[in-house]
DNA sequence: CTGTATCCGGTTCGATACTG
DNA sequence: CAGTATCGAACCGGATACAG
């Protein structure tokens, strides 16, 4: 259980929900899933369509991502018990509200995309200076 | 060559800078580093102090994180060629501007911390069959 | 003091195969 | 169609040892 209920969001505490949320966001397909689901609002989206809208994702990862989101009450699942069975996903209010700050990050990335890209290239050509000869990625 | 000069930020394209940025944000210590560095502005911060302010981080990860940020021009490095050598880090304008949207995510996490936490607990007690038996975390 | 290199473990992720 | 299970690969992250 959480060590201190009155504690404010301590990003540095691994046990803090804020930290867990950040970790969750960091998973590979999370932000893409949120974006697709948010754009689909207020409609529900099926598993297959979700997969179609997230190029490259596998069943496993889509399932995992969806489960993770549901575990944090970011997502609801509606099962249509027909044949063939169809399952519809939809963001909760909580999940939808998360899309706002996430969209801000996306917007930032789009806005400064060129600068980031340039930086990555310049990294190669840099002669010396104090330029970071980073080679981690 | 980058295939997307005029392309809009395509989050789904692994080669797109926006996607790379999201991946970088997702790394374990990134957001914490940005926060600490942003709070230190406009002062510079030394390696040791940075380490002190990010509990639990190892030299390697701090170095990696810093390198990654520098590779994207989010950070500048000033080496003081003395003995002992001291290195000062400081966010670039680009890096500092990233703190804003990141802070929005942090704020969201803090605001909804309780709901997330509750959801995580409820996951345990839930007797429902289709309840998310998430075991990813 | 400020890093880098190496080893190693844990987790994430992906392809495939299988069940309802 | 909608998912789960299993396996193996790749990567992230940590401890230690070492270099400038």
**Superfamily (CATH H level) name of chain A:** Winged helix-like DNA-binding domain superfamily/Winged helix DNA-binding domain
Strand order of the largest sheet of chain A: 1-3-2
Mean pLDDT of chain A: 83
Sheet bearing the most strands of chain A, described? 3 strands, antiparallel
The 3D shape of chain A can be described as globular
Low-pLDDT runs of chain A:
1-6, 125-137
Number of strands of chain A: 3
**What fold name goes in the CATH topology slot of chain A?**
Arc Repressor Mutant, subunit A
Output the structural class of chain A.
mainly alpha
The CATH class designation of chain A is Mainly Alpha
Return the CATH architecture of chain A: Orthogonal Bundle
Number of helices, where a helix is a run of at least 4 consecutive DSSP H or I residues of chain A: 6
Biggest chain-to-chain interface with counts: A-B, 64 and 66 residues
- The arrangement of helices and strands of chain A along the chain is HHEHHEEHH
Beta percentage of chain A is: 5-15%
Helix content of chain A: 40-55%
Oligomer: homodimer
Distance between the first and last residues' Cα of chain A = 37 Å
The tally of structural domains of chain A comes to 1
The radius of gyration of chain A is 19 Å
Task: Give an overview of the whole structure.
- Chains A, B: Pfam families: HxlR.
- Chains A, B: InterPro entries: HTH_HxlR, WH-like_DNA-bd_sf, WH_DNA-bd_sf.
- The structure is a homodimer of 137-residue chains.
- Chain A is mostly helical and 137 residues long.
- Chain A has one domain (18-136): Arc Repressor Mutant, subunit A.
- In chain A, 53% of the residues lie in helices and 10% in strands.
- In chain A, strands 1-3-2 form a three-stranded antiparallel sheet.
- The interface between A and B is large, with 64 and 66 residues.
- The structure holds a DNA duplex (20 and 20 nucleotides).
């Amino acid at each position: 259980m959480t060590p201190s209920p009155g504690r404010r969001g301590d990003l540095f505490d691994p046990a803090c929900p804020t930290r867990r949320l950040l970790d969750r966001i960091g998973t590979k397909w999370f932000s893409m899933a949120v974006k697709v689901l948010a754009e689909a609002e207020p409609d529900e989206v099926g598993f297959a369509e979700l997969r179609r809208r997230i190029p490259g994702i596998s069943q496993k990862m889509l399932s995992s991502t969806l489960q993770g989101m549901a575990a944090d009450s970011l997502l609801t699942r509606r099962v249509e018990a027909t044949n063939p069975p169809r399952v519809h996903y939809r963001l909760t209010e909580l999940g939808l509200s998360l899309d706002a700050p996430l969209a801000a990050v996306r917007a930032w990335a789009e806005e400064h995309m060129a600068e980031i890209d340039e930086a990555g290239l310049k990294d190669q050509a840099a002669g010396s200076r104090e330029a970071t000869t980073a080679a981690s990625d």
